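Journal club side-thread
Mid-discussion, someone asked how the predicted structure for our own chain would compare to the paper's figures. Pasting it here so we can look after the session.
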Amino acid sequence: MPELPEVETICKYLRDGTETSPSILGYVIQSAQVLWPRTLATPDVDEFSRRLPGQSIQSINRRGKFVILSLTRNTLLIHLRMSGDLLVEAGDLAPALHHRMLINFQNGLRLAFNDTRKFGRVWLVDKPEQVTGDLGPEPLDEGFSAHDLYLRLQASRRQLKPLLLDQSFLAGLGNIYADESLNLAQLHPLENSQHVSETQAERLLDAIRRVLNEGILRNGASIDWVYRGGDFQNYFRAYDREGQPCLECGTLIQRIRVGQRGTHFCPKCQKLAE
């Protein structure tokens, strides 16, 4: 699943453009085609197709794992889930096999939502908070402090790994970056959040930010067919490195199941408190 760095990379691709793909900022929507109706969380297909034409794209941002397109009157939110991707392409191309939605612009280009597994969802709402209102703080927000994180950890009695994956606790982390952050912070994924000291909370927030910023710098991780161009997978510390030596101490990285998610850690550097 695309996590914060991958979603941020896609937002940058849409907002800034590349050598081969233009920015879509300012583009005016001519029409919309919903090729897989269940892609729409809200509204229904008829209302979606009626409300979009004539609106232009004012800004492109991210909140947690959501791509947020601010339009003239409404807000379009896209959650890529397991296999979603967004592509800017010529409007006269035949839809690709896994295209689920097409937003056609007046200049002849289109934004295509491609989603092999059909888990991705799209919302058209008046305000983004209608969808993102339950999300936790952004870990890269400068206004979010280590003390804030410490208080949130103390208010919970959950294991660290499932807690970091909970988007209402902290927005944007997924399996990859949770494993990487815990390894860098030298905290066991099964550690109870109430056992984390304020010093450890400071170390954890620093690790989360370092890992996420490096992921963004490297355009995310390309570990599945849906990810494009990222190379952070070449710099993993723990994730997907089962049986390989820890970069700090040389102990072999182990893999366990935590909340039905494969979890990678160093048993020496990330000891569980007794």
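Post-session note: Residues 198-217 form the longest helix (20 residues).
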